[in-house]
Specification:
Layout lengths: L1 H44 L12 E6 L1 H10 L1 H4 L6 E8 L2 E8 L4 E9 L5
Antiparallel strand pairs: 1-2, 2-3, 3-4
Length: 121
C-alpha cells in the first residue's frame, strides 16, 4: 500500500511542477508578445522626425507585404514602392498627428506624413 501512495505523491508532484512550468511559459510569452509593439513605438520615438509627436498616443499596425500591396492600390503616395514588412505608427491627438512607416529590420523610418483633421461644413 505504501508503494502505491509514494507513486501517487510522485505523480502529483510532477503534475504540479508541470502546471507551474506551463503557467510561467505562458506568462513569459504573453508579456513578450504584448511588449513587441511597445518596444517598436519606443524605438520610433527616438527618431528626430517624431520628436514633436512623441508624447501623443500611438496606434501601431503591422503591415505585411500583401497588405502593403493592397493599400498601395488606393494610396500609392503613402504605401507605394515599399518592399518588405513595415509597421505603421500613428501618433494622433486633437485632430493632428504623424503617420510613420517604420522598417524594424533596418531600424529606419521609410516615410513620414503629417496628419491634419479637416472639418468641412
Amino acid at each position: 500500500m505504501k508503494e502505491g501512495k509514494k507513486k501517487f505523491n510522485r505523480t502529483m508532484k510532477i503534475m504540479a511542477l508541470s502546471a507551474v512550468v506551463v503557467f510561467l511559459l505562458l506568462f513569459y510569452f504573453g508579456l513578450r508578445a504584448g511588449s513587441i509593439e511597445e518596444r517598436i513605438v519606443e524605438k520610433v520615438k527616438k527618431f528626430p522626425e517624431v520628436q514633436e509627436y512623441k508624447d501623443y498616443p500611438a496606434n501601431i499596425t503591422f503591415l505585411p507585404r500583401g497588405k502593403l500591396t493592397e493599400l498601395a492600390k488606393n494610396y500609392p503616395v503613402i504605401y507605394g514602392n515599399i518592399t518588405g514588412d513595415v509597421y505603421e505608427i500613428k501618433f494622433l491627438s486633437d485632430g493632428k498627428g504623424l503617420l510613420v512607416l517604420y522598417d524594424e529590420k533596418e531600424n529606419k523610418i521609410i516615410r513620414v506624413f503629417e496628419i491634419v483633421e479637416v472639418k468641412i461644413g
